[in-house]
Amino acid sequence: MKKIYIILITLSVFSQNVSGQNLLAIPDTLSGTNFSLNIYDTSKVFYSGFTTNTYGVNTNYLGPTLFLNQGDSISIQVNNQLMDTTTIHWHGLHVSAMNDGGPHTTIPPNTVWNPTFKVRDHASTYWYHPHLHMMTNLHASLGAAGLIIVRDSIEGALNLPRRYGIDDFPLVLQSKCFDAGKQIVVDNAYDSVMMVNGTIDAYLPTPAQVVRFRILNASSERVYNIGFQGNLPFYQIGTDGGLLNAPVSLTRLRIAPGERAEIVVDFSGNFGQTINLVSFASELPNAIYGATQPGMGAGQVIPGYTSNNLNGTNFNIMTFNIVGQTTSPVTTIPTTLTTNNPWAIGSANASKTLTFSPVTMGPTAIQGPFLINSTSFDMGVINYSIPFNNIEIWTLNNQSPIAHPFHIHDVQFFITEINGVAPPANMAGRKDVVLVPAGQTVKFTTKFETFCDSMSMYMYHCHMLPHEDDGMMGQFIVTCPANVGINSNVQFEKELLVYPNPANTNIIIKQPSSEMIFEIIVKDYSGKIVIFKDNIHSEEVNLDLLNQSTGIYFVEIKTSKGLIHKKISLAK
Ligand code: C2O
Ligand code: CU
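Above: inputs. Below: predicted complex with CU-O-CU linkage.
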C-alpha cells in the first residue's frame, strides 16, 4: 500500500515538471483597411477524443490578429453567424460610442455590423471581444476574442523586434474550466486549465536573441504574477495603450484581466535551454483572485477555490525552447521609447469618486455581486454625462474585500496615485485597465476628447467578467458643446444639407454647427469606401468627386445625433 502511494506521488510530481507538450498556436493575421470577421458556432479538440464547442472568429478558437496603422480609416464587417445575439467591442481603441461595440450595439444572428473609423491610437496591443449584457463571460470564454496590433511612426522608428511570430509573439493568457465532457463552462473558481493562444501546455521554439512578447490577460478572473524560471530579467516596454517612456527592468509582472503588457527579453545567453514562463501566484498578496486567499480574511470563501491547483501556488504558463538565432536579430534594447504626456492634475475640470462594494457583507462577499456607488448596471440609466473635452480625475475606492480590475471605454488614462503613492514606473504609461486592490484607492486623470454623442453610451466596469455580467458596470455619455441646439434627428436631418444631387464634380455637406459631424464616409455601389473624412471642424465640407465614375454613391454621416444616410448620384 505504502509503496504504491509513493509511486503515485512521484508520478504526479513528475507530470508537473514536464511541460510544453504542444506547439504554441499563433493566431492568423489580417491587415489592410477592410476587415471581415465571421463569428460562428464551431468546435476544437483541446483533449484528444473530445470535441469542445466553441465560438470562433474566422477560425475555431480566438480570432485573427488585426494589424492597424495609426491614421488609417478602416471598415470592419462583423458577421454574426451564431445562433445568439452578440456584440464586438474594440477594447482600448479610441472610437466614437457608435463604433465602440458595447452592450447597446447588439448584432442579432445572421446580421452584419459595419463599424468604420479612423485609427487614432498609439502603437500598442489591444483586443476585441463580445460585450453582450450578462453574456460577456460566456461569449469571450468560448473563444470569440482576438488581438489588435496598432503600429505608428514612433514605434516604427525604434529598433524593436516586430516580426510577428518570428521575434514578436502574441501571448493570450486564459485559464479555463472544462466540465467532464470537456466543454468550456464559466463555472468560476474551477478555471484550472491554463492555455496560451488556446494551446494547453504550450511550448514555443524561441530564437536566442532579443524577443518581444505581447501579453494579454484574457482570463475571466485570474490575475497572473508573471516571471521567468530562474528569474531571468525582462523589460516592460508598453502598457495597455502605448509605449512607456523607457523600458522598465522587471523580474515579475502582475497582469490583471483585460490588461496588456509588452515585454522584451534577451535570450541570447540561453541557447539550448528550456525556460518556463511562470505565474508566481504564491507571491500574490491575498485578496487578489489567484492568491492563496481570494479575500482579505481567511473566512472569505469562493466555493472550489482552494482545490484549484492554480491558486496560491507557482505554476507554469508555458515553455520557451531556446533555439538558434534568426537572420538579422535585434541584439539591443532601446534606452528610451516615447514621451508620454499625462494630463496635469491642476488642469482637471471635474473629479469623480467611484466606490466599489459587495452586495452582501460577510464570508460570501467576495463571490459578488458588486456595486459601483451602490448601484448595479442598468441599460436604461446614464450614470454620468461628461462634457466634451473634460479633463477629469477619477478616484476608484475599493471598499470590497477583493481586488477589481477597473476598465473604462473611450479613453486611455494615467494613474496618478495608488493608495496615496505614485505608481511604479511600469504602470506610468497609457492605461485602460487598472487593478484596484481591496481596501485601496487608485486615482487617474483622463480627457474625454474627439467624440461627443448625446445618445450613445460608453461603459466602465470591472473586467472580472462574472463581476461585469453581474452588474459591476456603469455607462456614460460625452455631451456635445452647448451650441448644438438641435433636439430631434428629423429636424437635424433637415438642417444637414447634402447638395447638389445629382452632383457632377463635388458635393457639399453643410451642418448647423461645426461640432456635430465626426466622420463622413462615401461608398460606391459595391460598398467600397471612396471618401473618408474626419476631424471636421467647419460648417461646410467639400467632397471632391472629380475622379469618381458616374453612378450611385452612399453617404454615411456620423454625427452627434446619430448616423445619417444620404444617397446621391454622380452624373458628368
Ligand atoms: Cu474589455 Cu468593456 O471591455
Ligand atoms: Cu470585480
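The pocket of CU-O-CU linkage (ligand 1) is lined by residues 89, 91, 129, 131, 258, 407, 409, 459, 461, 463 (CB under 6 Å).
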